[in-house]
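Journal club side-thread
Mid-discussion, someone asked how the predicted structure for our own chain would compare to the paper's figures. Pasting it here so we can look after the session.
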Amino acid sequence: MLTELIKGRTLDEALELTNQDIAEYLGGLPKEKMHCSVMGREALEAAIANYRGETRPVDREEKIICKCFEVSEEKIRRVALENSLSTVEEITNYTKAGEAVARAFLP
């Protein structure tokens, strides 16, 4: 479905898509599956960077805080901000980070 969504767009236009756009195009996703739209968005970014011959910067200092799904602190912050997430359940649904990990990012 992501392929259908980006057909006819320039690479820059494709990069403007959000994970919410992907979820909406699919007719919505159950809250427990929102991480799929985040993974789609990340795959699109990686594919475009690869096509352009760009190397995506890897921050060796980036802290992986959920090893099961390789979820970094930066990913949780970015996804939470991009999607206005405010609960542990939302963060877990969007990143697949464990509940205890997600709790660490909320006041």
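Post-session note: The first strand starts at residue 64 and ends at 66.
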